[in-house]
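Standup notes
- DV: blocked on the single-chain target, sequence here:
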Amino acid sequence: MEAAGRVGIAILGGLELWLGDRPQPVGHARRRAVLAVLAAEANRVVPVDSVIDRVWGERPPDKVRSALRVYLSHLRRALTPTGMTIARQESGYVLVADAHRVDLHLFRRLLAQSRDAREPRRALSLVGDALTLWRGEPLAELDTPWAQAVRERLRRERAAAEGERIDWALACGRHRQVLPELTTRADAEPLDERLAGQVMLALYRSGRQADALVRYQHTRQRLLGDLGVDPGPALQELHQRILTADPALVPTDGTAATVTARAPAVPRQLPAPPQWFTGRGEHLAALTAAADQRDTMLITAIGGTGGIGKTWLALAWAHRHLDRFPDGQLFVDLHGFSPDTQPMDPATALRGFLGALGVPADRVPHDPDAQAALYRSLVAGKRMLVVLDNAATAEQVVPLLPGTASCTVLVTSRHRLPGLIARHGARPLCLGMFTDAEAHALLVAALGADRVAADEHAVAELMALCGGFPLALGLITARIRYRLRPVDAVAELRTSVLDALDADDPTASLPSVVSWSLRRLTERQRTVFALLGIAPGPDTGLPAAACLTGLPVRETRAVLRGLADACLLDSHHGERYAMHDLVRAFATTYAHHSLTAPVRRAALERGVDFYRHTAHTADGFLNPHRAPIALDPLLTGTHPQPLPDHPAALAWMDTHHPHLLAAQQAAVGHHRHQAVWHLAWTLTAFHRRRGHRHEELAVWRAAVAAAAHLPAAARILAHRRLGSAHAVLGQHEQAMRHLHRALALAEDHHDATQQAHNHHALARAWERRGDSRRSLEHSRHARDLFQDLGQTVWEAVTLNAAGWFAALLGDYDTAREHCGQALALHDRHHDPNGKADVLDSLGYIDCHTGRHRQAVRRYRQALALYRALGNTSQYADTLDRLGHPYTALGDDERARAVWREAQELYREHGREPDAERVRRHLDDLAG
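- DV (later): unblocked, structure below
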């Protein structure tokens, strides 16, 4: 280091560690490289992976983390006498040291002081001190991509500092002393307009006006010849002033003491950093990584819905990296989405920037293109940050972009600005909702850890109700800080979430903030936004949205993409679109205020019909032997989704199950009784296969109420299915009540088919009550009826049931006979699910008659069929039963595997008693 007695680390050349005027040993090259990386980011945490990447590059050794820990241990010992240390924080390491003890940070600090100095000689002295810290190539120990990028950036910083040194020397009247150096540098860099201007000014002040004018013409010719452009406005203006011998270009009395040259303007326009900023670690790291690795001007478009924290992120990152932008920071709110103003004209923003850069108002060009050109000239080669906040469109942003790689631009917008990304290479950085950890950290920062811990349950509910929405969390937190208990805030949110998040100040009102986004939408986009608020289900796919809106698919896709670009929708794989719960609550309210009741009803009916007709098609694949029912004609504008086969049908039902439940509730609300009943009917086979027992109960409860307005056949089936749903859940009294009601109705209407189905349902219900004898009686009655009706598939189903109940009663010969007959019928009718049921029954019979290997084969055949059909409910039951022949054969390992899988499925289906029974089997194996 240059001054005796200074303690520090030098990286502006080969790495050196100093104690006073004595160099200290650091160790071999790799250890020195680790210290150089941490010194470059002094007092900032460098993640472990970043340290490895910066030191070793793309091919680190196998045990690189162990090696890194060893190096750090040695470095800590080497640093001990200096008072500096390396600490482990969060997920990385940080060199803890006063910034002026690292030459790089001292260099930047001296430059910042020079720019703030009011007296030219003081500024010149500070710049000179900064430049004397350079001893050679920075980070000479490293040759990784990161080091190369940092070296290039530091070269630009040094070049900018050299330019400022010349500016201050000229301001101090030292034009004759710097002229030889300037001429040499300008000859080496003939396209550098700043250097050309400095040479021209030095020549003019040295009494060589003609040479100054010749230098201008020489520079102009090179620019035209090499680049095809004229000199920028700043150089042209200097040329004109020299041509007219502007007296302001020379000291008034010829002495350095009275020079009044204007010091370079260093704008510091950033607003204060956000007080409670938390989280966003990945986004902060992404901004830093982009700034480290760029070789062109960095433009980052930070997008997200209103209130997501875009401006907070930009300001937080900017304030943490002010040292990267010693030439200043520009900030403007473009009012793209403001409550009471139109988006700012870029020319207005440009004039503000020019003023901040020291251009007098009377020297600002009138032409907007000339303003933009002057702005780009003034920031050329400077390390500046430009924050363009709250932009409406790419067109508003483009005139404000610098034209030099030394500048960094952060744009925040509720629109994704695809034009800025496509045409200008902006990097998109989309913000989502807070994670639970980030939301909790915000509450702790705002309320204090003790208060959060004291109301832990209420805080957890608060976080869930706000759904990670930063603005919502901030609004509620502000109210809690002054007068509201967390438990009361939870109660308000549960009662009326939008009212709880509203306020007189529109900037502190979530409904107001969201509403501002709608102002930039077309009328059609606003209508679709409203309709999506009342659409059934948690999200909406493109086919459903087309039916809801009544638009062609192509137009619907364009509108949805527009809403996604406006950050009002999140787009997911497969052209699915979702809103955050709070945005959706606003959309629902907006729909009731902006759309008439007939428009809302027609849209919702089209949406409901899309789901019920597509589900009807899916059910045909899942249950091909079910008796068909008549469907109402499709409403105009409704186009069900085609489904080609069984896998597609099952996948569609899995994806749209919550939508079908919501569609049924919508139909209930509009008294569409046939639709309510039909949706329950289409869901039954799917519910049985996937084990959705509680949902089955809920849809048939709704269907029974709707069936009161429908013909008798609908009432019979509704009571039967509701009774069966109660039975599956062990609610025996309710089950018997509805099943006997269904049987009585079937008998009153002389409906033999429904009587047969009800006897079969009663057999299953009595099984769950443990009365296999009654189950067998009902099964045989059902079999006889189906046989008389010639319904052979259902005859096979009831034959298998009779065989199963006979087996439960110990009559294995009769059971095997019935199941054998059932298997033949199912094979004849190509019914794989029925065949799987019979194979499961035969496996049980074989297991209980000592044929354990045959039982294993039967069960595994059934499992293969259930797996292909997606019948996870019965798959779990068969896995449960398969464990027993395995244990009988002494194959405890396979028994343990199938029971563990069965236990996991039972828990997924909410079948805790079954899961507990399997757990006891596993305990017996372990014991």
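- Follow-up: The CA atoms of residues 416 and 565 lie 5 Å apart.
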